[in-house]
Amino acid sequence: MSDSEEDSKEKHLKLVVLGEQNVGKTNLVKKYCHDEFSRIYVPTIGANFYVKRISLAKNKDIIVRITDVSGSECTDQMLGTYLFKANIVILLYDLTNKKSFDSLTSWLRKIDQILRYRHGENRHISIVIVGNKCDLEHRKIIRPDEAKYFARENKLYSYVMSAKTGENVNFSFADVVARYFNLRLNSLDVDKQNPILEAEITPYTPPVVQCRRKFSSKKTKDHNMKKVALKSRGLKLNRTCAIQ
Ligand SMILES: Nc1nc2c(ncn2[C@@H]2O[C@H](COP(=O)(O)OP(=O)(O)OP(=O)(O)O)[C@@H](O)[C@H]2O)c(=O)[nH]1
Ligand SMILES: [Mg+2]
Q: Does the Cβ of 43 fall within 6 Å of ligand 1?
């Protein structure tokens, strides 16, 4: 097969998302694949599977099969199964949860053991760390330099995103995939990955201002004046009373 034929062929990739419970793995994948987000936390049981087709660098089609693994009940054996023939691992942590960041070391150790001893694989696997929930600006406790330091020490790439707002999601996934294939995202690719927000245009109708007229009728005014006049004379006004 010629190089050009090889280049035009669809490429397939297996990407596995791992990390502690509640860090936002399911929502991140759903945001990326279906542009969906849910505030309600529904823990994943086992794993969920998704497929996303992307087109990068001169329309090279890439089919990304994504496995979203439960953060709570993942035994080493199950993890081994999910990691089988994986090309990319996204290790997700929550920028507002220190424990989830600290757990990255043990995730890395587990992955390393599985790849080395179980599969006997020495294949090329890319691991990246991703800090999620960057929209919670006031609650972030993992500093950017901390994450960068950890990534540098472990020779990993590092990203931050928000499954809620979608900030940096499409671009980062595309960048991770492109790096795996040694492709460089061109400016067109970057534009393609940044979704254009479509605002609905509705005609402007000026609000109807309801003014409550504050007035006292002439009748009320006369009535009050009569009351004051009578009071000064020690009298009381009744309906039939007439002032001389
Ligand atoms: N503010 C904010 N909340 C998020 C974000 N991503 C996820 N969440 C919330 O975090 C909670 C957990 O999200 P999930 O996606 O279910 O977490 P998970 O990592 O899949 O959890 P497990 O399946 O138990 O491992 C949910 O209540 C989400 O609404 C985010 O980017 N920003
Ligand atoms: Mg989940």
A: yes
For CA atoms 2, 7, 8, 9, give the dihedral sign: positive
d(CA 191, CA 230): 83
- C-alpha distance from residue 3 to each of 93, 177, 182, 184 (Å): 39, 20, 16, 18
Shortest-distance Cα residue to atom 15 of ligand 1 = 24
What pLDDT is stored for residue 183 in this prediction? 82
Mutation choice for ligand 1 from 39, 41, 75, 97, CB with most ligand atoms inside 8 A:
41
Q: How far is the CA of 190 from the centre of ligand 1 (A)?
A: 26
Q: What is the pTM of this model?
A: 0.78
Q: How far is CA 131 from CA 14, 114, 117, 143, 219, in A?
A: 21, 24, 29, 10, 72
Whether 25 lines ligand 1, by a CB cut-off of 6 Å, is: yes
Q: How far is the CA of 43 from the centre of ligand 2 (A)?
A: 5
Distance between CA atoms of 153 and 148, rounded to whole angstroms? 9
pLDDT tens readout for residues 158-187: 999 999 999 999 999 999 999 998 887 766
| Residue in 29, 18, 174, 163 with CA at minimum distance from that of residue 83 | 18
